[in-house]
Design goal:
Elements: E1 6-9, H1 18-33, H2 39-58, H3 64-77, H4 85-98, H5 109-116, E2 121-126, H6 130-139, E3 146-151, H7 152-155, H8 162-172, E4 179-182
Helix pairs in contact: 1-2, 1-4, 2-3, 3-4
Length: 189
Amino acid sequence: MSEITDVFFDLDHTLWDFDKNSGLAFNRVFKKHGVPITLTEFMQIYEPINFEYWKAYREERIDKLGLRRGRLVDAFAKFQMNYDLAEIDAMAQSYIEELPVDNHLLDGALEVLEYLKPNYTLHIITNGFIEVQDKKLKASGIAPYFETVTASEEVGVKKPNVLVFEKALRKAGALAQKSLMIGDTFEAD
């Protein structure tokens, strides 16, 4: 680690407790849209579906709209609940608005950042949507730890495409051989 100068982090599932915050957001979305299902039941079905949709999104097999719609359509289908696309889109939009409202970090995340900040320059590289990620960083109080934030949307491709990492390195003014990437998904990070 003595030669490392820059540490790049993924945000969701790495620092920001996506599952917990997502559940809280869905709780409010379900109340707003009158979805008659318990959060626990839904999350058991939704989380693996969401994981597969994010994998497809990373691999560029679906676009942003396909991700937002598909994961909800497929999850509700498991409960024999069918909504028209206008209602799915409304729920998806409500979810995007609600997601950054709660900002629980994973256990130990703040302590890791506190430990690293004095010795390394810290950065974020994310496949998450720009309009949500900035809100998450600010509302959770961890934005000041990071010098740069690179979202795959600004590059036009998703991690693990090398172009995302090259863009992040350029923004940071960092060298790959003196950098470290920390994330939750080996394939993406």
